[in-house]
Amino acid sequence: MAAIVAFLGAWQLSGLFLNPIFLSTPLAILRAFLEIVADGTLVRAFLGSLEEMVLGLAAATLLGFGLGILMGRSRLAQRTFEPFVNFFNATPTIALLPLMEIWFGTDIRARVAFIVIICVWTLVINALSGVRNVSRGYADVGIAFGLDPFARTWKIFVPAAMPYLIAGMRVALAQATVGMVLGGQEVGESGLGGLTERYGSFFETDHLIAAIISSTALALLLFGMLRICQYRLFPWITATAAERR
Amino acid sequence: MNVKPLLEIRHLSHTYETKRRRVEALRDINLEVRAGEFMSLVGPSGCGKTTLLRIINGLTPHSEGSVVLDGVELRGVSRDMGFVFQDINLLPWRSVVRNVEIGLEARGLGARERRRQALNALRLVGLEEEAEAPPYTLSGGMQQRVGVARALAVEPKVLLMDEPFGHLDNFTRESLQIEISKLCTELGMTVVFVTHDVDEAIFLSDRIALFHSSPGRLARIIDVDLPRPRWQFNVRAHPLAIRLRELIVSELDVRRGLAI
After folding, report:
1. ipTM reported for the complex, 2 dp
2. Checking CA distances to A7, which of A41, B11, B50, B60 falls within 20 to 30 Å?
């Protein structure tokens, strides 16, 4: 806490020597922040970006976990899809942004699609390794008590893989945030990404930093929600973590 | 005593391949387990006793021979057996009672009926009170009692137990041995019990099947004609128990370094 206060103080003092275009100061940023909150610009951008993040992450989770779990449970599916997954995971997905624009136009659909494409591979790979790393003992319970392969997937493998799934979502969330900002900057100048693009090109550094911090806040909000979900829905993950280690 | 065997293992052999070699795990096992009997499989590590138990249940497929339950040759996993694992393997994302329900879910019972049978099984092991608790909040001994309840809930014809008390401390182990002995007598349960603890086998069993290793084969079967109930006297000090222990230990030939 003291470190943060000292940091902010030093930053504020640096304003006496530095051109405000270069770094601006905490108080100027606060002023800019309040200004764009008051005129509704920031709130609109924040909600727009939040919507894109939620849609993109939801779609990526569905697709990524679906494919990853399928690959984890079926050798055939793994052999079929693994080359594609590896190919796309190795592709710098940022390069796919123009393609998303060509496919989906220059509106929210392209931005959501870009968020999906940037984080879905992480989710596939985590779901796959989660399912593959389910302990033999849990798998045996499913077999010994007569569950069919489908029931074993839902009742044993998916819950047992949950720590991997959640770890995957955490990484995917960070990737999706990059996708959200970049999509906002490049596709129709919208949301928080659009704000950073606009303020940057007008050298309004105080507003720019306010928009950057808001993007961070959005990501932190989602991280927090993910954590709350984990504690509420899967308290056993934390409770048994020491044991599994 | 009922002479008709409930469970028969006929000319059962099992070989498997690793990357480097072929391993003969079990050679020509012939074994009959009578209805209501408590049979232990005892032998040194690597004698294939756990593999045999897994084969009986269908968890591990076997190469040759057959497992026959009630006159019917088994294919795949049997619905008429309950399995108790050494590692217990309770699912941490399910409450105690939902763990006990898992075998009933596979048998297509309705939610209400499942709950009723699961609570009954928990009552048998004295853990009805813990039904809603997460399993990881229970002690090791209590967790394994849940493991037993889970196996009993499916109303099995045969209860298969794979070194169920192997990971527990001495005191817990002894009290669970007594409890299992009582429970199985009460229910008239047919049990196949794997252990490497000779005293445990003598305390619990009607008969003990001794195994040799490399390849795993049945050495001999020993009758344990100790009176029951056995928790009412010191079994270990009983002259017959001492003689049986000598017999088993010499048969397994501990002196040659084949640890029991």
Report:
1. 0.90
2. A41
- What is the pTM (predicted TM-score) of this model? 0.90
Tens-digit pLDDT profile for residues A61-107: 999 999 999 999 999 999 999 999 999 999 998 899 999 999 998 89
Bridge partner residues of B217 (DSSP) = B212
The dihedral through the CA atoms of A172, A175, A177, A182 has a sign that is negative
Chain A, nearest residue to B57 by Cα: A144
Pull the structure tokens for residue A82: 């693994």
> Which of B74, B80, B87, B102 has the most A C-beta neighbours within 10 Å, making it the best mutation to test the interface with A?
B102
Neighbours of B92 (CB within 10 A): 20
> What is the distance in angstroms between the Cα of B91 and the nearest Cα belonging to chain A?
7
Q: What are the structure tokens assigned to A85, written together?
A: 């997954």
| B181-202 residue pLDDT tens | 999 999 999 999 999 999 999 9
Confidence of residue A244 (pLDDT cuts 50, 70, 90): low
Task: Give the C-alpha separation, B243 to A117, whole Å.
Answer: 72
Say if CB A201 and CB A33 are below 8 A apart.
no
Give the Å distances, CA to CA, from A3 to A10, B43, B130, B161: 10, 65, 48, 59
Cross-chain residue pair A239–B83, CB shorter than 8 Å: no
Sheet architecture: strand order including B22-34? B22-34, B5-17, B64-69, B72-73
